Amino acid sequence: MKTFQGIAASSGYAVGPVHKIRLKTIVPARRSIRPTDISTEKSRFGQAVAIARDEIQDLIKQLERDLGPEEAGILSSQLFILEDEMVWDATLAVIQLDRINAEAAFAKTVGDVAARFLEIEEETFRERVNDLRDVEQRVLRAFLGDIPAESILPKVPSIIVSRNLTPSDTAALGRDLVLGFVMDEGGNTSHVAILARSLGVPALVGLKDASPALENGIEVAVDGIAGILTVQPDEQTRGRFSMLQCQQVVINEKLAGLKDLEAITPDGHRVRMMANIELPIEVDEALARGAEGIGLLRTEYIFFQHQTIPSLDDQVRIYSEMVRRMAGRPVIFRTLDVGGDKVSDYLGAKREYNPFLGWRGIRFSLANRVLFKTQIKAIYQAATVGSAKLMFPMISGVQELREAREVCQEAVAELERDGIPHTPSLEIGIMVETPSAVLVADLLARECDFFSIGSNDLIQYTLAMDRGNSRVSYLYQPLHPAILRSIKDTVLAAHEAGIWVGLCGEMGSETRLAEVLLGLELDEISLHGAALPKVKQVIRWTKLAEARRIVDHLLSVSTAEEGNRWLADYINHRKRERGEGEEL
Ligand code: PEP
Ligand code: MG
């Protein structure tokens, strides 16, 4: 039995035969053309694009039917690519100036645009290359009068294996015959991961070189929790999987039952449960998991989805749609947090020697006031259709907060002056994610309406460990006494000033830390939708008094290791007390 370790992108377990998707890549031959053929080639290009457009529109309809309008939206970006002047006009210009055949001109144009995207060190742009290639191959097939990709459907329920599925291939597969996805490439935010989560089937991505080792029809087992692929599982492994599948069904049913219940402890303490999202497409998932609002919208991802900075109108439209869909539940808009690992060329944030200590978050926004004010205006306008709050990233002291608030005042004054509908009084909060913000939390709390602790950065900066460097990843220690003390001090400072405090870093998604966050007396936890029901369940099981004792103990030990061991023993003990069938 051979196994591969990948990234668990969508949870669940599946066993089934491999169905490999290996679309042959079309590389068009380049032919010189005569000047008199230029217009014929241009119209051939137009016809091929029209066929591709029809195919994509059909797929969008199918996807809307199978999964809903949000998932279908993923493919809309492909329609935009077809109409984008970077692609359309440039192809016509290449036909005209290089005097080559339409398919070669089109492939050259797409290659140039893809190369520009690949220079940008940003995953979202890499995803766009995937979209571009997908569109390119579809158009090239149309030139050849070739079959569309939709003919790749498996005949029996299967595990779909591929190097990297394009969004339209994934969409074309539908939900009936797909037991799971196994991809050599991709990360947690790749389209296939998003769609797999929507389909509710397990997915492994980033398996590197699994697909060449898998033959069509052989049986594989996908563990979407541990991220492991097992090839030709033996009897014992198959038995374990069917048991896990049954358990998962029972657990999911129980957790689904919590959707409309509050996260309230047996001794009556309530915690708000919110979702972290990056893109509008995730709103429905957040609601389906029972999120009481969006606790962190990382707005930079919306910018990264666009090739140019979205205009005020575009931002108003996108933000309003999200606020409207949340139907009165709050959406916390974190203003742009570019820089660090989120570099974007078109925004002018360049690679730096010490990117995480560089031109990042609020520093970038304050240096780009027009861009910043535009975003803030859009948020004030979007707030009119529901509930929105504003949050600034990477605040290190009161001066930055004051300057950011000044921009808010200017934005409101201008909206007022121009008679544009907006909600003038939004709650304004900050991310507490730098050690200095923790140290001056009392001063900051006097000048804002809420705190949200960004534990990812707080751990990075407090323990001096680059969050993107795998060599020091062992230092990602949420239970390090320095981190626990920082959170506790921040909560105290917030409560003394009479403001609420939440946590929106990855710590919130770790079920094993749910009691700890409860005991630290956070008012709100914002986490990945998928993790929300489990954390809520733990809160509903645990008395606040008990959680406080857990935190007191963890604060009394000297190392994260001791804390981890103690907490693991505690959780096991609790599991035994609750008995069989009450585990998560
Ligand atoms: C954090 O730092 O914990 C956080 C939530 O923000 P991001 O991960 O976007 O830096
Ligand atoms: Mg952060």
Question: What keywords describe this structure?
Answer:
584 residues, alpha/beta, TIM Barrel, 2 domains, eight-stranded mixed beta sheet, eight-stranded parallel beta barrel, 17 strands, globular, binds phosphoenolpyruvate, binds magnesium ion
How is this structure best summarized?
Helix content is 48%, strand content 14%. The protein is an alpha/beta fold and 584 residues long.
Task: Report the sheet-strand fraction.
Answer: 5-15%
Which structural class fits the helix and strand makeup? alpha/beta
Bound ligand species: phosphoenolpyruvate, magnesium ion
Average pLDDT confidence is 88
Please tell me what the overall shape is.
globular
> How many distinct helices?
22
- CATH homologous group name of the largest domain: Phosphoenolpyruvate-binding domains
CATH C-level category of the largest domain: Alpha Beta
| Number of structural units classed as domains | 2
CATH-assigned fold name of the largest domain: TIM Barrel
* Rg on CA atoms, Å: 25 Å
Q: Gap between N and C termini, in Å?
A: 28 Å
Overall helicity:
40-55%
* Largest sheet strand order: 1-8-7-3-4-5-6-2
Sequence stretches where pLDDT stays below 50 over 5 or more residues: none
* Strand element count: 17
> Can you summarize the main beta sheet?
8 strands, mixed
CATH architecture of the largest domain: Alpha-Beta Barrel
